[in-house]
Design brief:
Helices cover 49% and strands 4% of the residues. Strand 1 and strand 2 form a beta hairpin. A two-stranded antiparallel sheet has the order 1-2. It has 170 residues and is mainly α. The longest helix has 35 residues.
């Protein structure tokens, strides 16, 4: 089954025949309407959802109570942009705390750098993917990118202090 045109505003209450042509939603906001067209009553007050091959349903965020859709760039993370940025900021705080203690190995330092780079790349790809975002979410993304850059700088400084102490002590 192929979907390539926007849904009509009025949807028939009659069940659709298998293999019927269903137009695809043009905008993300039209998905609600599109999914309404795929519901039909199975009788006696029971509602069943028809499974149609080729219809991709946007995934929703896995954060507790969140019903926001997940952009394709964050599908592997299973989080909306807001919760992904909050997750990144929590990770940065944990990395800063751990590196401030000065007991990180070189391997752990490299793990932090890879994690920061990966999270930043994922965030940038999502931000530039064309996914519709509010100005608040755009500002949140920029703020999170700045947090990642500051985190990397703090971890680098902590590593330099650690290596300087090793040279003077040992």
């Amino acid at each position: 089954m192929y979907l390539d045109a926007p849904l009509p505003v009025a949807v028939s209450s009659r069940p659709m025949a298998l293999g019927a042509w269903i137009p695809a939603p043009a905008l993300l906001s039209d998905w609600k309407q599109a999914m309404g067209a795929l519901w039909n009553s199975g009788g006696e007050g029971v509602t069943k959802k028809e499974v149609r091959p080729g219809v991709s349903v946007p995934e929703t965020c896995t954060a507790k109570g969140c019903k926001i859709g997940v952009p394709t760039g964050l599908a592997a993370e299973h989080m909306c942009i807001l919760h992904f940025t909050l997750f990144i900021e929590q990770e940065c705080a944990e990395m800063r705390r751990e590196s401030a203690l000065g007991k990180n190995s070189h391997e752990r330092h490299n793990e932090f750098m890879v994690k920061i780079a990966t999270r930043g790349e994922t965030l940038v790809k999502t931000a530039t993917s064309g996914y519709p975002m509010t100005d608040e979410i755009k500002a949140r993304i920029l703020s999170t990118l700045l947090t990642l850059m500051n985190c990397r700088e703090n971890i680098d400084r902590a590593a330099m202090r650690q290596s300087a102490l090793r040279r003077f002590v040992g």
